[in-house]
Request: fold
Amino acid sequence: MLKICTAVLGLVVMSFAAADEFEDYAQVTKVTPRVEEVNQPQQECRLNTVAGHAMRQCRTVDQWLTRANGYAVTYEYHGHSYTSVIPYDPGNRLRIRVSISPDM
Reply:
């Protein structure tokens, strides 16, 4: 009987904990792309003729690319400002998960 009461009590506590989380929207105030530079070396070859013989000469050339690897998003929710890095530009509002717990 004690095991059943403990299990039921655990379920009741879990349901109260779950009720303390919900989704809402925050106002986005700033979005900054985070960029990284990546080297993708390329091989360049050309054909040279030396004393009647065709010779292929190759060399490796650095090719630097800049690409976005996320966005630093600053948003306001109930008078507080937060910043998170997310993989996309959210536009002017951001869906957030709000969790409430007592300050102990």
